[in-house]
Amino acid sequence: MKRIFPSEMNLDPIDFYDQVRTPHVDRPWLLLNMITSIDGSTHISGTSGGLGGPADQRVLGTLRSFADVILVGSGTVHAENYRTPHAPDGESGKRRIERKQDQHPRLAVLSGSGNLDSGIPMFDQDESKGAKPLIYTSENGNENLSENFQEKAEVVTLGVGPVDLSFVLRDLFDRGAKVVLAEGGPSLNHQLVEAQLVDELCLTISPLLVGGESSSIINGPVFSDPHQFQLNGLATEDRFLFCRYLSK
Known about the structure:
Helix content: 25-40%
Structural class: alpha/beta
Order of helices and strands: EEHEHEHHEEHHEHEHEEE
CATH architecture of the domain at 2-101 and 176-247: 3-Layer(aba) Sandwich
Number of helices: 8
Distance between the termini: 26 Å
Largest sheet: 11 strands, mixed
Number of strands: 11
CATH topology of the domain at 2-101 and 176-247: Dihydrofolate Reductase, subunit A
Shape: globular
């Protein structure tokens, strides 16, 4: 990977993305990671995999190595057929041990409706490593969850109406999470930005033009007060562009 801003230098991804991420008084540091095509598409045929490549996968693994929890929306969980993340190895694993983090980041799914498929790989206890996935849902969503989720996940019910993301992050903080990595989708991203909960945005731009009518990395009403971020780092590898922004 070649860093081109703030200065030119060849770096391993772990050194490009590593920084001190200090949690807030009552919630974790929230890092949002997304990939888009040059024209802003977030997927090809419903998944982001077609946009990526080996360089992007290395970056994804690097960012996951910093996280105590990976937060994702239910639509993305199903579309991407989520699995339990592998334990970081090499230098990423070494630094994770130095930070005294658990071996595996924990998965947390946001599903207000409770319409989740217990058969997807992330709920497979034969594959699962570490703590069971968390499901944050509403009272109505809890009623929709089938009974077999009781063995496959820890369900947190947040009351009637839309799930309060501020409460979700406070709950994760109380569970010991210092860094949370959000991986979409666009609707979840919109809620996080609107609530001013995003501290860092890592955006990968794939060298593809896709066309079509795919949503952007944020899907929802236009913000009445656009949120400003400051470019903190820019790097390139295998024609991909990797951007790091910090909230101002």
